[in-house]
Amino acid sequence: MNKLLAGRYLVGNSLLHRLDGRVKIICLLILIALVIGSRSVSSYAISVSAVCMIVLLSKLPPAYVLGPVGRLWLFFITIFLMNALFFDTLNPLYSWWIFHPSVAGIKQGFSVVVHVVLVLILSSVLTMTTSPTEVTTALESLIKPLKLIGVPTEDVAMIISIAIQFIPTLLEETEAIKMAQIARGARFESKKLKERAFSVFPLVIPIFLSAFKRADELSLAMEARGYRNAKKRTKRKKEPLSSKDYIALCICVALCLVQFLLLR
Amino acid sequence: MKKMSYVKLSIITAVSIALCVVLPMAFHSIPNAGSIILPMHIPVLLCGLICGPFFGLLAGLAGPLLSNLFTGMPPAAFLPQMMIELAVYGLICGLMMKMIRTKKVFVDLYISLIVSIIIGRVVAGIAKALIFAPGNFTMAVWTTSYFVTGWPGIVIQLVLIPAVVFALMKAKLIPERY
After folding, report:
1. Contact A229, B7 (CB under 8 A)
2. Residue A165: how many CA atoms within 13 Å on its side-chain side?
3. Tens of pLDDT along B65-91?
4. With contacts defined as CB-CB under 8 Å, which chain B residues touch A189?
5. How far apart are alpha carbons A139 and A134 in whole angstroms?
């Protein structure tokens, strides 16, 4: 199971790896808006070129970046066919039984698939070039304004960082419990739905008991050392944004503006 | 439940969020486990029941987000709607456990679970119909995707979650409710 995790963040020294986590998340949101706003051929050309440029700058192996897209090929074909065959029943190119393929449907199907593929590539590039700890720190900074409505942002960040640290430990423990239950005769691979559903019980209850035992021990240790809540903790000084971060932000905003002007 | 410290509630929430990543991976070998067994729902509902509405809401928002960051599942295109659905489960579960006190733990647990499962699916359906798939999402699609495909998951949740809560109480990892 750890192999699944290992495929996510790839250590590197590309320009994208060196950008600030906060900037990367903001740029991702701007670029998602750019992709979703694409309607004409020229705006699609801008979106696709921007995504290709980002993949090149990330210096990630194309097989890694396109991996999540490849795994969803059946989903993309289904979405395209559903739109192409059922979207416009009034002006079909040809009608047979319940199927009404139309030009508008093909365009709509193509547009939906391209949007999802581009968003998927963008989010994959973010997670492959940003470590989970960096993502947490960036999220903590970005959600700081929520403090104004009473959200304890430091506690939220602390909870997320502890959750990230728990993942490898719980994965190992789950694997051990799974092996132990298979040795006792549990059938996780059965083809019968009933057997498959019942195989969940001997796995889930021990996982929860062991995870909550760890939570109990950690909270006792934290309280014994005087930890009350994250507000009273000191923090390392956050590095200010560099010129390359500002340039990346400006390029993303400029692309969005060009897209907006093309739509008018 | 009797009062648990803020630190313990925070750590239990962190563990629940981590389980949102780990449980779907544990069921990775079982075909269609994601849509049939709904493994990510279990820690969120449990967190809402044990830790209350705020922590349940947080687990519902952060669980799918971290799972997407670590494993790529759920895909980014489905992430917002899943976050909304799970956040409502966690929030409503916590609120119901605060409001309902029948003096019988299993009755409280079942009422909270059933109400949150229904409200969560209704809110997810409304969000899908108005925001994520406007015009393409019908009542029949909603019933099929949330109740017909996922019925084994609903049954598993209704049997498993109270069992886990009682097991945790018996192991004295969480305090007794009454």
Report:
1. yes
2. 11
3. 888 777 767 877 788 889 999 999 999
4. 29-30
5. 8
Residues of chain A positioned with their CB less than 8 A from the CB of B25: 1, 4, 171, 174
Q: Do B62 and A159 touch (CB under 8 A)?
A: yes
Query: What is the per-residue pLDDT across A121-168, written as a single tens digit (0 to 9) for each?
Result: 888 888 889 887 787 788 888 888 888 888 888 888 889 888 888 888
In chain A, what residues touch B68 (CB-CB under 8 Å)?
123, 127
Residue B165 phi, psi (nearest 5): -60, -45
The rounded Cα A201 to chain-centroid distance in angstroms is 29
**Residue A87 DSSP label:** S
Query: What span, in angstroms and rounded, lies between the C-alpha atoms of A57 and A166?
Result: 32
Chain B CB contacts of A213 below 8 Å: 171, 173
Q: Render pLDDT for B120-161 as a digit per residue (tens, 0 to 9).
A: 999 988 888 887 777 666 777 777 777 777 787 888 889 999
User: Mind telling me how many Å the CA of B5 is from chain A's nearest CA?
Assistant: 9
* Domain limits, chain B: 6-170
Q: Treating both helix axes as pointing N-terminal to C-terminal, what angle do B41-51 and B6-26 enclose, rounded to 10 degrees?
A: 170
Q: Would you tell me which residues 194-233 of chain A have a C-beta closer than 8 angstroms to some C-beta of chain B?
A: 196-197, 199-201, 203-205, 207-209, 211-216, 218-219, 222-223, 227-229
Q: Which residues of A touch B15 (CB under 8 A)?
A: 163, 166, 170, 211-212, 214-215
For the domain bounded by B6-170, which CATH number is listed?
1.10.1760.20
Q: Which candidate in B12, B17, B22, B155 is best for mutational testing of the A interface (most A CBs within 10 A)?
A: B22
Helix, strand, coil abundance in chain A, percent, nearest 5: 75, 0, 25
Report whether the peptide linkage leading into residue B74 is cis, meaning its omega lies within 30 degrees of zero: yes
Which alpha helices (DSSP H) does A12-102 contain, by range?
Answer: 15-18, 21-36, 41-58, 62-71, 73-86
Q: Choose among A71, A127, A219: nearest Cβ to B5.
A: A219
SS3 B16: helix
Q: Which two tokens stand for residue A214?
A: 């760890």
Q: Flag whether pLDDT at A238 surpasses 70.
A: no
Q: Which of A7, A130, A9, A133 is nearest to A71 (CA)?
A: A7
Instruction: Please tell me which residue, A189 or A81, carries the higher pLDDT value.
Output: A81
Long-range interactions of B107-115: CB distance < 8 A, separation 24+: B108/B177, B109/B49, B109/B161, B109/B162, B109/B165, B110/B158, B110/B162, B112/B48, B112/B49, B113/B45, B113/B49, B113/B157, B113/B158, B113/B161, B113/B162, B114/B158
Taking the domains of chain A in order of start, what are their residue ranges?
2-132+240-263, 153-228
